[in-house]
Amino acid sequence: MKNDHDLMLRAAWAHFIEGRTQDAVAKELGLTRAKTNRLISECRDLGLVRIGIDSEARIAVREERALKDRFGLQDVWVVPRADSEEAAVRTVGASAGAYVSEHLGPDETLAIGWGRTLSASIAGLQPRKAQGNRVVTLLGGMVRGNGLNSFDIASRYARTLAGECCYLIAPRVAESEEQARNLLAQEHVREALAIAAQADLALIGIDDLSSASTLSRMGQFSKAEYDELKRQGAVSILQGVALDRDGNVIAHPIAARTVGLDPATFAEIPRRIVAASGSRKTACIRATLKGGHCNILITDEPTAEAVLQLAP
């Protein structure tokens, strides 16, 4: 039986972050509506609710500690399970935004990636007065701006943080390796990459190799390229670089065609957050953490449990 403190936090997450009604929350938790209302009210009265849940109000402490120990991470934040994939994206995203708000100090630079979870992270970002922050994109952009593009996300972050926005003005993936080299040699691209290399904090999502992935649906790579990557043992694409199940970089032309911060330089950023959830991302998260590509994880309960169940 879960205690009232645990139920309070779960009810607050479901109501305030997932946007579910108190009746729906009561049914999910097996409580009366009156008790659900009381728990949510107490959570608010105790100051645990802002836009999201106070980061000190932890639910999955055991999973967080286990993930830290297994992968040598700086920090882990595991949020409650949601009732759908979309709800999980919203809650993990909002948590990522809240984490950035709490850990990005004055005059610090945030380097940011792209994708659904990062787009959702704006909901958890606390607006602030100007503190000298900068936001910079880690990769080039895409032609179609659907809110998932790194340009869109970086702009929204900069507005919310009242900071400067720096863009890597180039396509995310060049048509050829030669074109990518030419783009990387341009002064404005070098300037953006230099700013990204000096970032204090990075926030990225990860792409799996399924047809359901955002990267696949956006048509960034051909089916032949995906099939070849899978034959080589790739499970994930992180910042344009393919990783095998243990996080080793797989040599493939897509990396040479990607216009962005290279993996070795990215690894020098002190705090590197990966925010992701869902069964499609489990192997991707393990690869990212085992390879040492990120040292902070934000995910949800079922994903955390699934990552821990994979072979070390």
Key features?
312 residues, Rossmann fold, three-stranded antiparallel sheet, 2 domains, seven-stranded parallel sheet
Characterise this structure.
By secondary structure, this protein is of the alpha/beta class. 45% of the residues lie in helices and 13% in strands. The radius of gyration is 20 Å and the shape is globular. The protein starts with a helix and ends with a helix. The model has no long low-confidence stretch (mean pLDDT 88).
* CATH fold-level label of the largest domain: Rossmann fold
Q: Can you name the CATH architecture of the largest domain?
A: 3-Layer(aba) Sandwich
The major β-sheet equals: 7 strands, parallel
Please estimate the helix content: 40-55%
Structural class: alpha/beta
The whole-number mean of residue pLDDT values reads 88
Can you describe this structure in just a few lines?
This protein is of the alpha/beta class.
Set down the secondary structure blueprint.
Layout: H1 4-17, H2 22-29, H3 33-45, H4 61-71, E1 75-79, H5 85-103, E2 109-112, H6 116-120, E3 134-137, H7 150-161, E4 164-166, H8 177-184, H9 187-197, E5 201-204, E6 207-208, H10 214-217, H11 223-231, E7 234-238, E8 241-244, H12 253-257, H13 263-266, E9 271-275, H14 282-290, E10 296-300, H15 301-309
Helix pairs in contact: 1-2, 1-3, 2-3, 4-15, 14-15
